[in-house]
Amino acid sequence: MDQIIVQILNGLDKGSAYALIALGLTLIFGTLGVVNFAHGALFMMGAFCAVVTSKILSSSHKVVDETRTDFLGNPLEVDVFYVQDWFGQAAGAAIMDWAVPLAILVSIPFMILLGFVMERGLIKHFYKRPHADQILVTFGLAIVLGEVIKYYFGANPIQTPAPDALNGRVDFGVWLGYGPNVVVYPMWRLVYFFFSGAIIASVFAFLQFTTFGMVVRAGMADRETVGLLGIDIDKRFTFMFGLAAAVAGIAGVMYAPIVSPAYTMGMDWLVLSFVVVVVGGMGSLPGAVLAGFVLGIIESFASMPAVVNLLPGINQIVIYVVAIAILLIRPRGLMGRKGVMED
């Protein structure tokens, strides 16, 4: 039973990332009708926002420390961090330690701006083009973004640690009545799960309870009628593209301590995230979230040593097998709407 609990937690952890990426993808498809194959690259860009923020906050300069000498008696040059010069020793150390959460403040405006530039500069020219053209141009954009990251940051993954206070383990089993050290789980993964839940709930609340969100939902259902009411729905949809980019970026920032960012990160998540969207139902926001968590849990159980020993390689293909089975039974996905991508 303890192994089952661990696998459920692993599934919720990975499912959180699937759900956040799929949510952004579905927002873009539902509002603009664009199949955005660059969305995995947006997740990667968010992760590298954490890398850049961490590097900036850990920038240092050399000073001569008269209290320390080398073996010849000469004063030593030591590295002093700029943030400690500005904010003091203790506050500066805390700021560097919490670089990943602070990167969220950097990633939100950056990712919204990047989303605006992508939508206005490139994607708007493909609204009325076939989905195959949209896939080709956004896939090419994803490759370009990956190569840019590779050029500036290299090909190797870059470790980006979580804050020390959240870098330990939680004795989760004690909460469920088990003995000590029976079900132990990394604290940051639990933080990621709850953080993802808060972001997903915020997006749904924004769409459900704000006037802006209600207009967007109306435009998703009937764009022409909303336009006839004198509402500039295009500007609102452009904002939604920026919001979707920000959601993907935040997901990448918080995932950086779990999987070290690398330029291949976007491609690693691209295909899986689209499988999640299709299984959930194209254009269905609740379906994308539901499918993300369901497929994350299934993949986690398929990765158990007992399962892999019985069926070698099943953990690599189980999501696609489940997706095929679901689509054979429900061709529109779990919560898909009639008429979406059926023309």
Automatic annotation (TrEMBL):
GO CC terms, sorted: plasma membrane
The protein's topology relative to the membrane is:
Multi-pass membrane protein
Q: Does the keyword Lipoprotein apply?
A: no
Family assignment from sequence similarity: Belongs to the binding-protein-dependent transport system permease family. LivHM subfamily.
State the compartments where it is located: Cell membrane
Q: Where is the signal peptide?
A: none
What CDD domains does its record include?
A: TM_PBP1_LivH_like
**GO MF term list:** ATP binding; transmembrane transporter activity
Keywords annotated in UniProt:
Amino-acid transport, Cell membrane, Membrane, Transmembrane, Transmembrane helix, Transport
Could you give a single Gene Ontology term from the biological process aspect?
amino acid transport
UniProt KW DNA-binding keyword: no
Source organism (scientific name) = Octadecabacter ascidiaceicola
Q: Where are the transmembrane segments?
A: 17-35, 98-123, 135-153, 190-216, 237-258, 270-298, 310-329
Q: What is the protein named?
A: High-affinity branched-chain amino acid transport system permease protein LivH
